Amino acid sequence: MKQAAVWILMMIGIAACRSGALQPGKAIVVSHAGKDASCPFITKDADNRPVISWEETNSGADTGLMYYAVSNDNGYTFSDPVAIPASAGVYPHDENLPKLLFKPGGTVIALFGVEANDPRNKYAGKVMYTQSFDDGKTWQPAAPMVTDTAGCDQRYFDMALLPGGEAAAIWLDNRKDTNAEGSTLYFATTAGRNGFQHAMPVASTICQCCRTKMYVAENGNIHLAYRDIINDSIRDMVHQVSADGGRTFSAPVRISADNWVVNGCPHTGPTLTANSTGLHFAWFTMGGGQGAFYCRSVDNGNTYTQKESLSKSPMAKHPQMTTIADHIMIVWDEPVKWKGDFNSRIGFQYKAADGKTMEAGNLTADSTYANFPVISGVKDNKTLVAYKRRAGNRSEVVVSLLSMP
Questions:
Q1: Are the C-beta atoms of 78 and 70 separated by less than 8 Å?
Q2: What's the pLDDT at 20?
Q3: SS3 sequence of 54-81
Q4: Computed over its alpha carbons, how large is the radius of gyration of the chain?
Q5: Can you count the helices (H) and strands (E) in the chain?
Q6: How far from 182 is each of 121, 194, 238, CA to CA, in Å?
Q7: What is the C-alpha to C-alpha distance for residues 116 and 141, in angstroms, rounded to an integer?
Q8: Rounded Cα distance, 382 and 116, in Å
Q9: HSE toward the beta carbon, residue 125, CA cutoff 13 A
């Protein structure tokens, strides 16, 4: 009888493995115990190893320091945290999250936001960056992205590696040539060890308080997505593309005519990725429906499919997405009621190459407070998801490795 019971359990286990369901791994805490950690970000180093970065502050502190950890086994485990001393003063802001980029040849760039303390705008921030030329062993003093004295507020930045090995960055900037509301989107690229050079404006009247997204496709096209302010009041997502390395960009085109009229800051930006079938987008809106939505474009952004809802929750937000084995994985956070109060959980959709939903669900338990997920595909048809998780009166950064169906 015991042997029969064992055999039945084995068969149940085999059936479960063959079910095709996404299998989350154990959540690993990468941040220091006792510190308040936030702003998780995932990238890869020059050897294509997964890297998690984040920010930590001491109890009661307003600013902190960037850290990162590297995985030598495709995301199963991570190294001890490595500090970036030149990032001292980074302001913890999960929308304006600090980022790392690894260039070929041992150069690493950390991009982060600090408080500006500018009398022209008491809420202003600065975008700073520091470079390491020896794979993170030592770091150059932090430098401002903008040295023009007319610039007093920069924030909501993104960074990506270009095909030639240089880095590109975008950010929102107070400098503009119009009296209309909004910020200007700026674009710059690195020039070897000289850092970011030749900054140029790409678009104006951008929503001042939402993440921007830059994605470099395999063909070298540079794609931008952000929340625009249209006709002085509509805050919808738009897309631009450059086919010449960032020298010129196409005119902004709405990915969805949500017509969301709001006199305020949504604080949740768009995300995009690409695969063999085209471009894929996700974003939050309260126009033409409410929550997190998805669409795609099969013609490089000339037209877009009708948007579809990602979650039943009308407050699903902060979507992030990645391509893995030509499929699409999307994650977001959403409120969930737990024992008379509200927590936040991480939801997901796993999509086929053509955008058809193959699986959907939640990656974290309702009893856990988890938000601001980030995601990256890694080798062997696996995906890393990192997020901020509440731990008593502080927060920690955790990462989980997902085995895709």
A1: yes
A2: 57
A3: EEEECCCCCCEEEEEEECCCCCCCCCCC
A4: 21
A5: 1, 29
A6: 14, 30, 14
A7: 17
A8: 40
A9: 23
Longest dimension (CA), the chain: 81
Contacts of 129 (CB under 8 A, 6+ apart): 109, 110, 111, 112, 142, 143, 145, 169, 195, 196
Q: Reading across the β-sheet that carries 99-102, which strands appear in turn?
A: 99-102, 108-115, 125-132, 143-144
pLDDT recorded at residue 258: 98
DSSP 3-state percent helix, strand, coil across the chain (nearest 5) = 5, 50, 45
Angle at the Cα of 141 (from 137 to 147), degrees rounded to 5?
Answer: 145
Cα separation, 58 vs 46, in Å, equals 31
Q: What is the DSSP string of 358-398?
A: EEEEESS-TTS-EEEEEEEEETTTEEEEEEEEEETTEEEEE
Residues pairing with 278 in the sheet:
275
pLDDT of residue 133: 98
35, 57 Cβ separation under 8 angstroms: yes
Q: Which contiguous run of DSSP H or E holds residue 3?
A: helix 2-17
Instruction: State the Cα torsion 130-136-140-141 to the nearest 10°.
Output: 60
- Which of 326, 323, 381, 372 lies closest to 347 in space, CA to CA? 372
> Would you state the structure tokens that stand for residue 272, as one six-digit string?
């995009």
Q: Say how far apart CA 399 and CA 5 lie, in whole Å.
A: 36
Polymer length in residues for the chain = 405
Using the 8-state DSSP alphabet, how is residue 193 labeled?
G
For residue 283, what are the CA distances in angstroms to 127, 212, 271? 24, 11, 6
- Asked if 158 and 138 count as a contact pair (C-beta separation under 8 A), the reply is no
| CA dihedral over 147, 150, 156, 160, signed as positive or negative | negative
Which tokens sit at 286?
């309260």
* Cα(261)–Cα(236) distance, integer angstroms: 9
DSSP 279: E
User: Could you tell me the two tokens for 168?
Assistant: 């590109």
Show the low-confidence residues of the chain (pLDDT under 70).
1-20
Residue with tokens 């990462």: 399
Q: Quick one: tokens of 248?
A: 């010129």
| Strand partners for 57 | 36
**What would the two tokens of residue 225 be?**
């997505």
